[in-house]
Amino acid sequence: MNDNSIRRLVIVGGGTAGWMTATALRRLLYPELTIEVIESEEIGIIGVGEATIPPFRRHNALLGIDEREFVRATQATFKLGIEFRDWARPGDSYIHGFGTLGLDLDGQPFHQYWTRALQIGAAKDLGLYSFNVQAARQGRFMPTPSDAPKNTPLEDIVYAYHFDASLYARYLRRFAEAHGVRRVEGRVVEVRRHPESGFVETLVLQDGRSVSGDLFIDCSGFRGLLIEQCLHAGYEDWSHWLPCDRAWAVPCENVAPPVPYTRATARPAGWQWRIPLQHRVGNGHVFSSRHMSEDEAAAMLLANLEGRPLAEPKLIPFHGGKRRRAWIGNVVAIGLSGGFLEPLESTAIHLIQTSIAKLALLFPERDCSEALRNRYNSQMDGEFERVRDFLILHYHATERADTPFWNYCRTMEIPESLREYIALFRDSARIMPKSDELFTTVSWAQVLIGQHIASRRYPPVIDRLTDAELRQFIEHVEQVIGSCVAVVPAHEAFIARHCKAPPP
């Protein structure tokens, strides 16, 4: 370490963001660094059922967390994808499955062969050609077996988790403290800054104690205690593209075995989530307050629960968007303090995870150089914008005009970046995401096709197969996937055998 190295890192706020940051940076950075988390029991966390996407498994692997222990400790279940009901048309249903789609051939993605096969009457529902979708629909799950046959979907089963966010934060806190992270109980009431540089130097707690640091991570949630209230970062509001601005959340009793997928059901002014856990089901109604009152939205949520509610609904106001700058001076905002995009594709934890990873790669010295800050901010801008476009696609690519909300979404102007994606797909079934983009060709294809965006044609190279060869290829893919799914046990049976949580 040199004399300019950061020696004290202070994280303001616990919860998922705070404790994920603490555990990961403790693992990734030098041992001489002191890490403190200031957390107040008075403030609490949102703590609803949380759904993740596959990159989250890398975070647990980085920390060396045992998967089955984690599943038991957080009342978790497994997740193969997300089901969307009633989005493009009432009565519709499709699953955005993780992992592969069909089998790519000669460097061309499977959905382009499927597009041609559909035109000659040789293709069925796209979900039949996804291992994850078929396993999800049949309520089956297992991780990749050690004896998986080569060149089959069983060779690499891609999945994520559903878990209780409150239990996860407690689990990470125990893990972090066991590895040297110090927790400070208290509420920050004053922020003291250097008179010349403007850098934050000390935080004063309600009881008069003070905590000093070299670098501060703002994980204080929507209020943005440091990044906004102190440093006035500003907020880029995307509510004209993502009009939902409220969510009611409530847990309910399990009435059936937990399914291995999240469900998002469109409602008249938004959508309802369903996240199955071992001990309960997490539910929420995300809605636009311009199109539905809070009371009406709460009543709609309660009327559509599958089991008895276990608590009073909790209202969560929000504005979709991000801070104009996530890193200012020696303060970095991670989690809700840095921005919020509704949980339609379960990206909240991923945005925390990628924020941490980028900070670790660009970890500064005490001067927090402008070059590092600018690169971090531009990279996080890109992450948020690409996720934003994917979410907007679900709303805009709809044929629904049955309510003012859906009519607005169907006819609204969209970002040029998304317009180009849709135009390219309509023209020739091509999808060309950036190399570092979270959502791959497989994800875009499933949602574009699931939302009834049709391609007029396909790339000429797809005609290398004759009609007979194409039929044989498509049928072979369906058969292989069906046979692989058939050997997978029921999701509930796998949990009961390997990672059943104790009663809460």
List the helices and strands and how they pair.
Layout lengths: L7 E5 L2 H14 L5 E6 L9 E3 L4 H8 L3 H7 L3 E3 L1 E5 L7 E5 L12 H10 L11 H7 L22 E5 H14 L3 E4 L2 E6 L6 E6 L4 E3 L2 E4 L16 E3 L8 E7 L9 E6 L2 E7 L4 E7 L6 H10 L10 E4 L3 E3 L3 E2 L2 E3 L5 E2 L7 H14 L8 H27 L7 H8 L4 H13 L12 H10 L16 H20 L4 H8 L6
Parallel strand pairs: 1-2, 1-12, 2-8, 5-15, 12-21
Antiparallel strand pairs: 3-7, 4-7, 5-6, 9-10, 10-11, 13-19, 14-17, 14-18, 15-16, 16-17, 19-22, 20-21
Helix pairs in contact: 1-6, 1-8, 8-9
Explain how this protein is built.
- With 504 residues, the protein is of the alpha+beta class.
- It has a domain at 8-77 and 163-237 and 320-386: FAD/NAD(P)-binding domain (3-Layer(bba) Sandwich).
- Helix content is 34%, strand content 20%.
- The chain has 14 helices and 22 strands.
- It has a 7-stranded mixed β-sheet. A 6-stranded mixed β-sheet has the order 8-2-1-12-21-20. Strands 3-7-4 form a 3-stranded antiparallel β-sheet.
- Helix 1 links the parallel strand 1 (8-12) and strand 2 (34-39).
- Helix 1 runs parallel beside helix 6, helix 1 (15-28) runs parallel beside helix 8 (348-361) and helix 8 runs antiparallel to helix 9.
- The longest helix has 27 residues, at 370-396.
- The protein is globular and about 75 Å long.
- The model has no long low-confidence stretch (mean pLDDT 96).
